[in-house]
């Protein structure tokens, strides 16, 4: 979903969750369990019509709940207070859930559309957090890159290092996110964005401190509106947002920097103690069907890893968009975030505080 956008639960889906409190607390009858599947997903991250179609075709009732962040999702699933069957976490959180034994291995024989339609490059990229592709089926993905206004820069922007160019002082937007901000500096230094090496982290921190006088603002969603309105020349942005901005302002250009970047992936997972595992497999298989994946892509606009769905896109500029569907094999130093443990989280957060306080 990406990732740092915050959504609110819609009234229709929220009402649906309230209709079946017994199911949500895990105390439904055997008959009820057999005829339903309980899904936990990001807000506004699925076309509601696809849920209706699945219910109609399968006869399985979907109990659908929404979360705002990976961090709010995790403790609710871990506690078991809600008997979820399926969730859709992001890469690093999937890594954490695997480490803590919270996920069930995927039986691809029961989810044939995942084997047939999801592109091999997305499974390859997923190995950063799911090394043997045992637990996660890619649902949406994207990159983090640079968006620049070609009327406000002196040359094409192609590298992270150009975010340290003094001639763009007060015209640079950085992400107000510890991992994304450090990723930029770590890639510039040639280091992994998952590093825990003290020297590498200190070097990244010092780079961000040196850049700070040039930064107009540390933002999240606001980068989209500021860039559309010409309020800044350069910004760090998620590819899904970049597609929208270019429709609103054709002067904007999105690039994946030469030093490498983050490829984020949100994936379907089946919880270890899912009470409706068979129905969960049917739901995921349905969502991996090409026509359904296309509906979800059209609805949420974030890139789909479903190559069969991409072939069904009628707009040639979208089907062939290098923003929505870059050939990842053409880029070096691409990584996905992995969970660094509580100590790692603490270390990054403390260093980020130093940057922000400088």
Structural class: alpha/beta
Total domains = 2
CATH topology of the largest domain: D-Maltodextrin-Binding Protein, domain 2
Radius of gyration: 21 Å
Helical segment count? 17
User: What is the element string, with H for helices and E for strands?
Assistant: HHHEHEHEHHHEEHHEHEHEEHHHHEH
**What is the CATH-assigned architecture of the largest domain?**
3-Layer(aba) Sandwich
Helix content: 40-55%
Notes on the protein architecture:
- This protein has 358 residues and is an alpha/beta fold.
- The chain has 2 domains: 11-141 and 265-326, Periplasmic binding protein-like II (D-Maltodextrin-Binding Protein, domain 2), CATH 3.40.190.10; 142-262 and 331-357, 3-Layer(aba) Sandwich (D-Maltodextrin-Binding Protein, domain 2), CATH 3.40.190.
- 42% of the residues lie in helices and 16% in strands.
- It contains 17 helices and 10 strands.
- Strands 1, 2, 3, 4, 5, 6, 7, 8, 9 and 10 form a 10-stranded mixed beta sheet that branches.
- Helix 4 (48-58) links the parallel strand 1 and strand 2.
- Helix 9 (178-188) packs across helix 10 (198-211), helix 10 runs parallel beside helix 17 (341-357) and helix 11 runs parallel beside helix 12 (239-248).
- Residues 1-32 have low confidence and may be disordered.
């Amino acid at each position: 979903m990406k990732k740092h956008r915050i959504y609110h639960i819609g009234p229709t889906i929220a009402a649906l969750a309230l209709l079946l409190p017994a199911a949500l607390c895990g105390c439904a009858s055997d008959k009820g369990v057999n005829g339903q599947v309980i899904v936990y997903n990001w807000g506004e991250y699925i076309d509601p019509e696809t849920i209706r179609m699945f219910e109609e075709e399968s006869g399985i009732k979907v109990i659908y709940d929404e979360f705002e962040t990976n961090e709010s999702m995790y403790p609710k699933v871990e506690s078991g207070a809600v008997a979820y069957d399926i969730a859709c976490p992001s890469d690093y959180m999937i890594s954490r859930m695997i480490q803590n034994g919270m996920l069930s291995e995927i039986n691809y024989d029961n989810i044939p559309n995942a084997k047939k339609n999801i592109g091999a490059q997305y499974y390859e990229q997923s190995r950063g957090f799911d090394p043997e592709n045992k637990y996660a089926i890619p649902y949406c993905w994207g990159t983090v890159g640079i968006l620049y206004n070609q009327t406000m820069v002196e040359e094409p922007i192609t590298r992270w290092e150009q975010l340290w160019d003094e001639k763009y002082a007060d015209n640079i937007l950085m992400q107000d996110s510890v991992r994304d901000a450090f990723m930029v500096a770590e890639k510039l230094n040639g280091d992994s964005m998952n590093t825990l090496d003290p020297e590498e982290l200190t070097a990244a921190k010092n780079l961000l401190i040196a850049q700070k006088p040039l930064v107009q603002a540390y933002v999240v969603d606001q980068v989209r509106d500021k860039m559309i309105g010409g309020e800044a020349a350069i910004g760090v942005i998620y590819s899904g947002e970049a597609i929208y901005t270019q429709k609103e302002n054709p002067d904007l250009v999105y690039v994946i920097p030469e030093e490498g970047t983050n490829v984020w992936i949100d994936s379907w997972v089946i919880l270890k103690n899912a009470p409706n595992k068979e129905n969960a497999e049917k739901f995921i298989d349905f969502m991996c069907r090409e026509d359904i994946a296309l509906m979800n892509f059209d609805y949420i606009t974030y890139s789909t890893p479903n190559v069969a769905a991409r072939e069904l896109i009628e707009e040639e500029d979208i089907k062939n968009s290098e923003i929505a569907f870059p050939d990842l094999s053409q880029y070096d130093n691409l990584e996905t975030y992995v969970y660094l443990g509580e100590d790692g989280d603490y270390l990054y957060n403390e260093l980020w505080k130093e940057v922000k306080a400088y």
